[in-house]
Amino acid sequence: MKKVYMSLAAFLMASAAIAQESSVTKTFWDDPINDPMMPVYAVSTMVFIVLVLVLAVALYMVRIVNILIEQSEKDKAAQEGRVYVPRPSFWGRLSQKLNDSVPVSQEEDIDLGHNFDGIRELDNHLPPWWKWLFYGTIGWGAVYLVVYHISASFPLSIGEYDREIALAHEQAEKRKASQPAVVIDENALKYTADAAIIAKGKSVFVGNNCGTCHRADGGGNTIGPNLTDEFWIHGGGIKNVFSTIKNGAVEKGMPAWGKSMSSEDVRNVAFYVMSLQGTKPANGKAPQGDKYIPEKEAVAVDSVKTQASL
User: Fold this and answer.
1) What is the pLDDT of residues 161-219, one digit of tens each?
2) CA-CA distances (angstroms) from residue 155 to 118, 137, 143, 166, 288?
3) Residue 115: which H helix or E strand, with range?
4) What contacts 42, CB < 8 A, 6 or more positions away?
5) Which CATH superfamily is domain 188-295 in?
6) What gap in Å lies between CA 213 and CA 274, rounded to an integer?
7) What 3-state DSSP class applies to 122?
């Protein structure tokens, strides 16, 4: 038997060494059959199953022994002509010890003589486990008072809250420092067909409820106007579009997105809206507002008029 144990131990140690030396990055579940630790897991599983079976058999044998002892005591009581009183079980004895309760046969000894409607008052004591639990809470209260209120060895709940808030602010400041926000100069803003900015703006436009009122293609619906034509309610051009998105138009149901979006996101959405000019989506909403003429076009028209007048 000793040789068997030594062989099993050597086998397990060899398997573990092989597993440590292996440089394969695959996990056990990728190829369990060829995994170096498969023998170890298999032997461990078998040992566990054997232990469970041994425990089950042991419990069954104990049960059989108790049945035989009980039958023997019944036969002995019958031979002696007395009533068989079964012995309390292990759990019954444990419950008796923990609760310190008086058996039903001895309740007369603790009867206080008060009887109402067949209900008697007995002088039962509190269970020991309950009393020790109560004493434990008193001891814990004393320790808590000294540690948290007198010596201040640990912070109170408000102290922990303040510390967590300070830590959160510190982490937020570090994150802002590592990712500085893009400063957008609204007065100097000019539109360019930057594909990266337009793509980001489209993502925000579609995912931030803008498409709900204006449609994803900007064609407009019952609430939002058409963003693809030359007519604008609050002025066209990149600066006016940026201002409208940022400040909103609450009276017309347009929220001030600048309160919940960064200036960079507002700029990106404005660029996307400007990129929709002239796309003419199907079933677009009828024009609303005034036609917007860019400043350079206005200058060109004025110059023509001036030349004509000359």
Assistant:
1) 999 999 999 998 888 788 776 777 778 888 888 889 988 888 888 887 787 788 888 88
2) 56, 20, 14, 14, 62
3) strand 111-116
4) none
5) Cytochrome c-like domain (1.10.760.10)
6) 17
7) strand
pLDDT tens string 77-93: 888 888 887 777 778 77
What are the residue ranges spanned by the domains of the chain?
2-78, 120-180, 188-295
Q: How many residues does the chain have?
A: 310
Its pTM stands at 0.43
CB contact set of 221 (below 8 Å; sequence gap of 6+): 213, 214, 215, 285
Q: Exposed, middle or buried: residue 36 (CB in 10 Å: 0-12, 13-18, 19+)?
A: middle
CB neighbourhood size of 194 (10 A): 13
How many angstroms separate the CA atoms of 119 and 77, rounded? 34
Beta bridge partners of 291: 231
Contacts of 128 (CB under 8 A, 6+ apart): 98, 99, 100
Separation CA 67–CA 60 (nearest Å) = 11
The angle subtended at Cα 236 by Cα 281 and Cα 253, nearest 5°, is: 75
